[in-house]
Design a protein that fits this description.
By secondary structure, the protein is α+β, with helices and mostly antiparallel strands. It has one domain: Roll (Thiol Ester Dehydrase, Chain A). It has three helices and seven strands, in the order E-H-H-E-E-E-E-H-E-E. The strands form two sheets. A five-stranded antiparallel sheet has the order 1-3-4-5-2. Strands 6-7 form a two-stranded antiparallel ribbon. The longest helix has 17 residues. The two termini are 21 Å apart.
Length: 155
């Protein structure tokens, strides 16, 4: 990830999230990403509840994580989050995790979600209100069908 997303939320590493090696067990980073995603949606003004009220749900269809460093019990982490792309029915979240005190990079990753009808679970178009909320918050025009490194463009 070239530039750090401006939104972040904090996560305190709990003892139960560490493994025998003393650092955070790799799978917990996906939980941290999910925490960042939910808080980001609230911050942009289109929460998960807003999706449901619009008759839309979404499924995670792809997730990946690149490990950059180690985090330990009681570390405070900043989970930076943004939507980097919105397609017809899919949208991509990007994450960058840093240790609060030292600003050490800990992990980066992404989750791709697909919008579905709440009742039929068939793919549907991403709600326009969501597109607008993201564009307004990020101050960008979301481009469809553009390579990942160029998906966001300043207005």
């Amino acid at each position: 990830m070239e530039d750090r997303p401006r939104f972040f939320t904090t996560v305190q590493v709990r003892y139960v999230e560490t493994d025998r090696q003393g650092h955070v067990f790799f799978g917990h980073y996906f939980t941290y990403f999910d925490v960042g995603l939910v808080e980001y949606l609230r911050a942009v003004g289109f929460s998960y509840d807003d999706f449901l009220e619009a008759g839309v749900d979404f499924f995670y269809v792809s997730a990946d994580c690149q490990y950059k460093g180690r985090a330990f019990f009681d570390d405070t982490l900043h989970v930076h989050t943004r939507v980097s792309h919105i397609g017809n029915s899919s949208f991509t979240f990007e994450f960058a995790v840093f240790e609060q005190t030292t600003d050490r990079p800990i992990a980066t990753g992404r989750i791709v979600a697909v919008a579905v009808d709440r009742e039929t679970y068939r793919k549907v178009k991403v709600p326009e209100r969501f597109r607008k909320a993201i564009a307004d918050y990020e101050r960008v025009k979301m481009l469809v069908g553009v390579p990942a490194r160029r998906r966001c463009q300043a207005p």
